[in-house]
Structures are given as C-alpha cells and as structure tokens.
Automatic annotation (TrEMBL):
<keyword id="KW-1015">Disulfide bond</keyword>
<feature type="domain" description="PITH">
    <location>
        <begin position="129"/>
        <end position="322"/>
    </location>
</feature>
<dbReference type="Pfam" id="PF00085">
    <property type="entry name" value="Thioredoxin"/>
</dbReference>
<dbReference type="InterPro" id="IPR013766">
    <property type="entry name" value="Thioredoxin_domain"/>
</dbReference>
<dbReference type="InterPro" id="IPR008979">
    <property type="entry name" value="Galactose-bd-like_sf"/>
</dbReference>
<comment type="similarity">
    <text>Belongs to the thioredoxin family.</text>
</comment>
<dbReference type="InterPro" id="IPR036249">
    <property type="entry name" value="Thioredoxin-like_sf"/>
</dbReference>
<dbReference type="GO" id="GO:0005737">
    <property type="term" value="C:cytoplasm"/>
</dbReference>
<dbReference type="InterPro" id="IPR010400">
    <property type="entry name" value="PITH_dom"/>
</dbReference>
<dbReference type="Pfam" id="PF06201">
    <property type="entry name" value="PITH"/>
</dbReference>
<dbReference type="InterPro" id="IPR037047">
    <property type="entry name" value="PITH_dom_sf"/>
</dbReference>
<protein>
    <submittedName>
        <fullName>PITH domain-containing protein</fullName>
    </submittedName>
</protein>
Length: 324
C-alpha cells in the first residue's frame, strides 16, 4: 500500500527520487492554496492499495514556496499541478484545479503500475545485480522502508538515500553520463551513517556494497571506497557518530582491495546467527581505503529471508535531514 506523499526537501533529493524509482507522481502545491491540499488528499486516497512503493512507485509533493528552483525547472504557473513520470520521463501533466483530469491521471498511474508489476513478474525487468546471490537466499532490499530511512553526512550535491537501493545499473558502469548523480558521497569527512528500517522482520545472510569511485589515482580529492564498516541491528533510530564509534557493533567489517569484483561490488557474509529477526539495520562507514576526505557508495543490496510484516506505525521517525 502506498503511504502518504513524500515531502521533497531539495532539488538533489528530487533528482535522486526520479533516478531511483520507475514511476513517480509529484504534486506541486502551496500550503496556502486550498485546492492544492485537496488534490494531495485525492491523490493519496485513490492510490491506496497500489503495490510497489519505494522501488516501482513513489508519490511526492513539492512546496513551490520553498523549492522555487524545481518550480521553475518545470514551468509551474498554476496550482495545484500534478505530473506523472515513468523511467524519469514526463508522461502526463495536470495544471490547475481540474478534478476530472486528475482522476484520468490517476487511472493512467494505475495502468502504469500494473504494467510494471507484470514486467517484474515475467522476469523481463532490467534489474541489475552487482554480484551473484548466495544459493538458497533472495534479494530482500525491497523490504527497506525508504521514507523512514536516514543518511547522515551525505553531500547533497550527490544522490540521496533512495539511489542506494535502486535496481538500475550504476551510471559509472553504463558508459554514458547520468542525468543525475546516482550515488552518494560523504560530506565533511569520510564517514557515513545509514539507518534502514524494514517493512518485515528479516534474516540477513549477505550485504552487497557497490562502490565505483573515479580511477584517477592522482586526484587526492576523489572519493574512496569504504574500508571499515560497523553494523548494528534493531536500533529504534539512527545513531550519532560518536555513539557509533564507541558502541560495540553486531559485526565489524574490514574490506580490502581483493574483496571488490569487476562490477565494483563487495559481497560481505554476515554472522547469520546475529542477524535473525531484525527490524532495523544501521550501517556505519568508519573510514575509507585511502587519504581522501570523501567516501562513495553507489548501491546496497540486502540478501536473506523476509518474514511477517511489521506495524510501521510503531517505528519512530527522526529528523528531516538532507539525504532522507
């Protein structure tokens, strides 16, 4: 079931969302415009029951009073304005208080979601994998609750948290230029803190990390791959950096150059007995593998088993920071 529309906080977050999600509906609004608020309610109500939230479908809203750059980029002159995107391309737009046209857009949205689900079920999806899955286990990355995830110390000029879980092949491997930076980099130093709550109780067997920094060894400012990582399970919210430094980890990880395959992916086996029945995971990148002050991650994959769905209403969400 699709939850409430995501409030976009920055142009970088919007670009990341478009890049990471197959189908996006965005509503441009102003809190002072009654028709805008009614349109948000209609959109959220009529999208109830649609599956694929987070990777196939995302609802979003943009406050034009706060994010004028996005408003200008799409030439928004009337409120509310609703736009439907598929694979990053605009396929429909409704300007002004036009309920019949909005209803038509919602029907088009439902058909697009049904088509995406059929494509996924038939195995024709172009989902990219950085490494083979361990025998007997499946990719459970889609169990990450993206709206409640939090990434700290992220450079907002790069992608947001959602790009980490994209099923698309990283642009660094595609041979062409990406329309947006589909990776994350740290900001003030080489540390990152990622909080991941799950939709169901998980048993995790393997963590796959893809990192594709530039290959120019002469550039001291180029981001690095992660080297030292700490994992923590079942925390109710994200940790602080000092707390993560001092706290005993569920598992400590030390990566070397030989751990990365030709796709830039390291498959990290987890101590399976310690990763049973978990509802959240905190990933702390302690440092990178060189002297730069930035570390880079392109993709994350969680491999294991999923169980019973959780009551997400009981999970506390903290903060509204860049990169959420």
């Amino acid at each position: 079931m699709v939850s409430a529309a995501v409030e976009i906080q920055s142009p970088a977050e919007w670009s990341s969302l478009l890049d990471a999600t197959k189908i996006v509906v965005v509503l441009f609004y102003s809190p002072s415009n009654a028709a805008s608020l009614e349109a948000i309610h209609i959109l959220e109500h009529h999208s109830q029951g649609l599956e694929g939230h987070g990777t196939v479908l995302e609802l979003a809203k943009v406050n034009v009073d706060e994010l004028k750059a996005i408003k200008s980029a799409y030439s928004i002159t009337q409120l509310p304005t609703t736009m439907l995107f598929q694979n990053g391309k605009e396929i429909d737009k409704v300007s002004g208080d036009n309920i019949p046209r909005l209803t038509h857009l919602i029907e088009k949205l439902k058909r697009a979601v049904d088509s995406a689900k059929t494509e996924k079920a038939s195995g024709s999806s172009s989902s990219w994998k950085g490494a083979a899955l361990p025998r007997g286990y499946v990719d459970v990355t889609d169990q990450v609750e993206l709206n409640r995830s939090e990434l700290l110390n992220v450079d907002t000029d790069t992608g947001g948290v959602r790009v980490l879980f994209s099923s698309e092949k990283p642009s660094a491997l595609s041979g062409g230029k990406a329309t947006a930076k589909d990776w994350v980099e740290s900001d003030t130093d080489d540390q990152l803190l990622l909080f991941m709550p799950f939709k169901s109780m998980l048993k995790l067997h393997t963590l796959q990390i893809t990192s594709l920094p530039p290959t120019d060894d002469d550039d001291d400012e180029a981001p690095m791959r992660p080297k030292t990582i700490k994992l923590f399970v079942n925390k109710p919210h994200n940790l602080g950096f000092d707390e993560a430094e001092d706290l005993q980890a569920t598992q400590d990880i030390e990566l070397s150059e030989s751990d990365w395959n030709k796709e830039g992916t390291a498959s990290i086996p987890l101590r399976y007995v310690r990763f049973q029945n978990i509802n959240t995971l905190v990933l702390f990148v302690v440092n990178g593998d060189g002297d730069s002050e930035k570390v880079r991650i392109d993709r994350l994959r969680l491999i294991g088993e999923s169980g019973a769905a959780r009551d997400m209403g009981k999970l506390e969400k903290i903060g509204d920071l860049p990169g959420e």
